[in-house]
Structures are given as structure tokens and as C-alpha cells.
What does this fold into?
Amino acid sequence: MGLDSIKVMGANENNLKNVYVDIPKHKVNVVTGVSGSG
It folds into this structure.
């Protein structure tokens, strides 16, 4: 996707273990978690 996305590479924080993700820009994106997770 090149410059059309936000890339997270190798995220390690709290319960994240080496997470890689491409989030498209200019689109509706939703990230959710369990209730009361912080």
C-alpha cells in the first residue's frame, strides 16, 4: 500500500507480542477491546 497506510511493525507493549499491522488511510477503521480494558 505504500504511503496509503499506517504501518505498525513489531509492536511489543502490555499484552502485544510482535504485532504487525497495516491500517489503510482515508477509510473507516475501528479497533476495539474488551470492556474495562483500560
User: Anything to note?
Assistant: The longest strand covers residues 5-11. The chain has one domain: 1-28.
